[in-house]
Task: structure prediction
Amino acid sequence: MYIFKRILTMILTIWVITTLTFIIMHSIPGDPFASDADVLPEEVLENMRAKFNLDEPLPVQYVLYLKNLVQFDLGPSIQSETRDVNTLISDGFPASAILGLQSLVIALVFGLLLGIIAALNHNGMLDYAAMAFAILGISIPSFILAPLLINYFAVKWGMFPVASWGTWQHTILPSVALATAPLAIVARFMRSSMLDVMNQNYIKTADAKGLAITGIVIKHGVRNALIPVISFIGPLAAFLLTGTFVIEKIFAIPGIGKYFVDSIFNRDFPVILGTTIFFSTILIVTLFLVDISYRIVDPRIKLTSRGE
Amino acid sequence: MAEPKKDDVLFRPVDRSRFQQEKIVRPSMSQWKETTVKILRNKLAILGLGLLVIITILAIIGPHLVPFNYSDQNLSGKNLPPGPEHWFGTDSLGRDMWARTWYGARISLTIGLAAAVIDLILGLIVGGISGYMAGRGKFGDKVDGFLMRIVEILYGIPYLLVVILLLVVMKPGLWTIIIALSITGWVGMARIVRGQILQLKEQEYVAAAEKLGTPHRKIIMRHLFPNMIGIIIVNLTFTIPQAIFAESFLSFIGLGVQAPIASWGTMANDALGVILTGQWWRLFFPGFMISLTMFAFNVFGDGLQDALDPQSKE
Result:
């Protein structure tokens, strides 16, 4: 019953997002055929508008779109003549998802380790080293880091391919470039949270009972310190999985990150809506998973008054 | 009365020096005073604060220390490396990088700080209410659900679309940038605050405060927020550089500051094209200033966390 209700709410939320996006994208100036307007005769333009239902009044367009949407048809792309929005997404998503998942794993594993080590060595050398790294990681944006990585690891030392997509080696540099900033943020959150938790009475109790330090850190410390990291990586996962414009562009990766930006500049209305719905679905599901994992990590947490 | 014998186990004179240890030596301090004292004792925090003060002062007087304006072009002296005349070198239009760096500091620091303050206020209010109301009866669940759906919707609508819409309605300028950054900027903070509150409100001291009849507002302000100060500060220190970089992206699509006005983000962006030509100063100075500001905020934030955290009393 609870799950059923949540799914219903999710569908409702996606409908609100779709509607608002529809309204906003039609209230900004611009036309998908703006670049063709000078070269093509008026009749051709009218035909093209009719093909994409753009000659209909907006409420009719809206209803037509929703009709297709409930059948999971995201419609044709105006820019791409051969592929519709469903194909654009299914073609590009695997590359974006692999890249996103790898970066997420790198950011989580190394971020958590760095944060825990820093917290356990509070104000020690390791703490300072880890935090200096974290500060560098967050203050170098990916569009600067990526060219630097390519210049050294690919061009000068030849360890990895320069760009493009195909083998596993191709995924290393973009994953690292994409993971650096989230890694630094995870490390900072974890350090701060661990410092709080390691001061709690139950840690002192466990220590006084003579439990092994690794057991205390993992079972009592890390588990209770994870909440901020979970809050942070939920939305991050959605953003990473659906591709990033900058990294995919620099490394020439055939992902879907570019459609989020290009479709808006081209006023490719079906692609704008399609990518937004796709992203929102993933986002809302991850936010739901975040709420569930709060309770797994800390069973005392109550999300609803019925304790589900 | 006979002196008790030394080996009398039942009656022995009390060793008075032991009470001395339990005497309260430390005068009781107000929270404000205690925080100040703790911060002043933390050398790294003082270093961070000092750096922030220096950067702010240079942002105010820096551009006036050289005889060049941030927008003065000099095509015969372009791409000069740092030297006695141009302390930070010149860019591809012969503009003095020192003047531009410190003029840019005004824009970038204003944007960063304003975005951080707005994120903080909205994030604390929405996240605080949402987390505190969750699991508190049917009405509480509804409030939490409603606020979190708003967060989901703001995450979901394409940011770029909203920004272009803003561009249509408002003139490009500092405040437009700050509004564009704040529209969705606070949702991350709200989610993190909510997560923390969900966990902290189940702690024993909150239950105790509640049983004693402490009003909800006071529980949130006095018991919950101070215990998550570390996470809040960490999140704030990220907001500032992220806002500085986001501004350069907004400038790129025409919504940010307009040339010839400089900001650290746009200077770093402009320097990307020449990154491999050896004109290192183009990227180094704005990049270094962003990192230095980050470093200063971080170490000062760490000191603040130690000083404000009620659990870390020595």
Chain A touches chain B through 63 residues (CB under 8 Å).
